[in-house]
Specification:
63% helix; transmembrane; mainly alpha
Length: 390
């Protein structure tokens, strides 16, 4: 099975490179709608269709990996991914490069490898997790759907998506197989990768509840004690990062309070409910020119959010409760900042519902697959050429 997974990955990865290469000709004007492209990406001397996979958030992770959190507001980005880049970057550096300004190209190479290696590992764990409840055909279809998802190219970019996917899948897989200490450890690592990792805490609590209810685990047993320990371990990643921020920057919530500095009109103080967020987008549609990139981005964010949210709600009675809580949390929490910005990327975390979608669609699955692939080609082309997608 691993050979098949590796083959799927290679076909997908080659497809991304070909799309990125063609995008350079189809979209000749580079958008450059993010900072540090010249000092973190172009310095690699790689072609745009390669270094473009380090755009937007990627440049921040590269700078943190090399210089730590010395840039103001860089604390918005959680530490595990850049820490891994730093640890595994044992390649010889360019000693003539001024690292106060430029990022050594070796950080790009290592980050790119890390993201893609974790994606391959994620596909393997995703298959194993899906096989607990579904047959081989559904599990394989779920992997294909994951790689075909319109924003799946972020898994192969210098983003935390593939690392977080791997750790989340591991946490759920270990929980489903009654290895709650390991579920807690991988959950803790996930919570050191993204704030969404904290959602594994209620998910693991529900897993324990389901297992106690089905008598797989007995109260007052060693297995139950291990499960409780695993749950207590899970939020450790975020807690340690908050402690680090408190010690070094006097603000344990700096990852939250720094969010408005990155645009997207995010609120870090007030909680904005979903109806108000939808109202804001309706106003955008009524005032922003139809042919503008701003309208396209807003429409993309709105459609992705609404469609995925409705799909998950419709699957409520069929999806495992722990999965449902995790997915809904990943979909709703970002909207509380008052915007749907980045939602086309955040909805990737609905992957736990993919087996049910594949099962429900049957032979019609191929039409969804075709639509997703076309949309991924379009969105990747924009991303590579420096235009905001998610």
């Amino acid at each position: 099975m691993f050979r098949k997974i590796l083959s799927l990955f290679l076909v997908w990865r080659i497809g991304l490179f070909l799309t990125a290469l063609l995008a350079s000709f189809i979209i000749p004007v580079y958008g450059n709608s993010f900072p540090y492209a010249n000092v973190a990406l172009q310095v690699t001397n790689l072609p745009n269709w390669v270094w473009g996979f380090g755009g937007f958030d990627g440049v921040h992770y590269l700078r943190i990996a090399q210089n730590g959190y010395n840039a103001e507001f860089s604390q918005a980005f959680f530490p595990l991914y850049p820490v891994l880049i730093n640890i595994f970057n044992v390649l010889p550096k360019n000693l003539t490069l001024d690292t106060r300004i430029f990022v050594d190209p070796t950080y790009f190479y290592i980050a790119f490898l890390i993201s893609n290696i974790f994606l391959i590992a994620s596909l393997w764990i995703f298959y194993k997790l899906t096989r607990i409840d579904f047959n081989h055909k559904i599990a394989t279809g779920s992997m294909i759907l994951l790689l075909s998802f319109p924003t799946a190219f972020y898994f192969g970019a210098i983003y935390t998506e593939s690392l977080f996917l791997f750790l989340t899948l591991c946490s759920f897989y270990f929980a489903r197989t009654n290895k709650f200490i390991l579920a807690g450890i991988t959950g803790a690592l996930a919570s050191a990768t993204r704030i969404f990792g904290l959602l594994l805490v209620p998910a693991l609590i529900l897993e324990v509840y389901l297992k106690v209810k089905s008598r797989e685990i007995k109260l007052k047993s060693k297995e139950f004690i291990k499960a409780v320990i695993g749950i207590l371990i899970a939020p450790a990643g975020t807690i340690i990062y908050m402690w680090y921020l408190k010690i070094n920057f006097s603000d344990p919530l700096y990852f939250l309070t720094s969010q408005p500095s990155f645009g997207a009109e995010r609120s870090s103080t007030d909680i904005i409910l979903l109806p108000q967020v939808f109202y804001r987008y309706i106003k955008i549609f009524a005032t922003v020119p139809l042919q503008s990139h701003a309208f396209f981005s807003a429409a993309l964010e709105f459609i992705f959010s609404v469609v995925i949210l409705i799909a998950v709600i419709l699957l409520f009675k069929k999806i495992r409760l722990s999965y449902f809580i995790f997915i809904i949390g990943c979909l709703i929490i970002p909207t509380l900042t008052g915007t749907l910005s980045s939602m086309p990327r955040y909805v990737l975390m609905s992957f736990l519902a993919f087996p049910l979608i594949v099962s429900a669609l049957g032979n019609s699955f191929k039409y969804l697959l075709f639509s997703f692939i076309i949309l991924q080609i379009v969105l990747l082309s924009l991303f590579i050429r420096g235009y905001w997608v998610a």
